[in-house]
Design a protein that fits this description.
The protein is mainly beta and 184 residues long. It has helices spanning 2-17, 167-177; strands at residues 19-23, 27-32, 36-39, 45-51, 57-63, 75-77, 81-87, 98-105, 117-124, 127-134, 141-146, 157-163, 181-182. A 7-stranded antiparallel sheet has the order 3-4-5-12-11-10-9, with helices on one face. Strands 1-2-13 form a 3-stranded antiparallel sheet. The N and C termini lie far apart (49 Å).
Length: 184
């Protein structure tokens, strides 16, 4: 009985010691102890990066023009067809670096299958958040976007995201973004 209690308290202490609250000045986020904040220089917004395990990184942008984390499609949908972009093999054509190539008739294709990411909306700290995850772990964007960092809608935009995160880092990052708190 005493050994099981000792083991329980040891595991409990190890679990508490493995996280920290990172304070970025304008916001905070609870993260694993070994994540490191790296300051960066922004032009019109507050930007930075956080180094995760295995030197994977996530980047944040807190300002008026922060990305909405919309996927760069790599394809065009017209009224009846879908075209992909391919690099133009004609190197002398300096105007048309990419060309459109027919991919499929629109009515024969499930467009959603072309996307690498999926998203849903949820409340994080009473704010509307768009959470983006890759359909296949390790391939695509994982992140969160806030249209406003204030409940009254008069705050700044904010996004923090990483690309091609490992399964462990994606899981820990998704846990961390749900602890985001913005300061007024």
């Amino acid at each position: 009985m005493k050994i099981s209690n000792l083991l329980f308290f040891t595991l409990l202490l190890l679990n508490f010691g493995s996280e920290k609250v990172m304070d970025f000045g304008s916001f905070t986020m609870q993260t694993p102890e070994n994540w490191v904040y790296v300051k960066q220089q922004g032009i019109d917004s507050f930007v930075g990066e956080v180094v995760l395990d295995n030197n994977e990184t996530v980047h944040f942008d807190y300002g008026l023009y922060s990305s909405k984390l919309e996927e760069d499609l790599g394809f065009i949908i017209t009224k009846d067809s879908v075209f992909t972009y391919e690099e133009n093999e004609n190197k002398q054509d300096t105007v048309n670096r990419y060309i459109q190539k027919f991919y499929a008739k629109r009515d024969t294709l499930d467009i959603k299958k072309l996307y690498k990411t999926e998203y849903h909306f949820e409340k994080i700290n009473n704010l509307n958040a768009k959470v983006v995850t890759p359909k296949k772990t390790g391939i695509g964007v994982t992140g969160v976007y806030f249209e406003s960092t204030r409940a009254n809608g008069k705050g700044m935009r904010f996004q923090i995201s990483g690309y091609n995160l490992s399964e462990k880092n994606q899981r820990e990052f998704l846990k961390a973004i749900r602890t985001l708190k913005f300061k007024d």
